[in-house]
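User: what does the whole thing look like in 3D?
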Amino acid sequence: MKKVLVILMLAVIGYSLGTSFSTIKFGENRIGDPKEEKNVAAYYLNRTPDELSVANVITAIVVNYRGFDTLGEVSVLFLAATGLGSILYRRRKKGEHPEVITKPASQLLQSGSKLIYPAILVLGAYVFIHGHLTPGGGFQGGAIIATGLLLMMMAYKDFEIRHNVLTWVESIAGITFVSLGLTGLIYGKTFLENFLPTGNINDVVSGGIIPIIYIAVGFKVAAELAGVLETLLSNKEND
Amino acid sequence: MIFSLIILIVLVLLLLAAAIYAVMQKDLLYATIATGVISLILSILFFIMQAPDVALTEAAIGIALTTIIFVFAIRHTSRREDEILIHEESEAQTLDNKENM
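Assistant: Here's the predicted 3D structure for the full assembly of 340 residues, as structure tokens:
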């Protein structure tokens, strides 16, 4: 009975997706020609350099034109990390050391990760600071930093980041995002509207509040993912 | 023109091979590594299709973080897919004993 229901649901979903996707020609110019003025792509491509002076159109769409959806995505990440932490986190007693990694890592891994770890942190910071100029942004830069922290956690037994610091960084970054949106509301415009002056295009300081929001998102994602990895790593193994 | 087509076809065939291997393999650790290979090839395909933001995101999250979270989950449960847990076996044995009596 359950299999019949599943196949029926798959047929309904497949049919509705098929009828809506069959109007787009495969391999054509990505949902409408960007040269025609009335399509969505042309709208964003024409308005971004004049209004915002931002070189990366994807960043402008994610942070400015669709900024409220980004706020929803950041809150979903926060809920996932909080749920994982509430199930798996155990407050350690004083002096109890998490003996999860019993053998030390090999010499190659230890010396290699010590050399490459600062470079990974700098790369992650570069990606989320220059999110409005080069491809990348807050989410990508935060994930790169979390990967660097994971490398150190796997190579050295006693590398640990205190949960207090991670929680404070994440909370302050989230508060910064929401308070920037509310400041736009106070200035008489809409929520998450640009209120700082936009400079010249291709400058680091350009685009109003877009770099500030992406820096906050980068810190928040890095702290969340590092907290999730630390919770998983410091859990004792089942027998 | 024909060279880029050959590269695309080779990458898609590697993707399919890694996906089929990940489903059919019974040792879950090997299947997780195959999932990481799928994310790697997908990130290269995104870059070829001129979407560098999506390629960066897939590379950072799909290759490193998803693989390590799956490895942690496998570590806390069983490593092979067709393992019988010990208490299920002993329950089957006690049921057999009751039927024989």
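In plain terms: The helical segments of chain A are 2-21, 40-51, 57-65, 67-88, 107-129, 138-155, 163-186, 210-233. Residues 56-90+105-233 of chain A form one domain.
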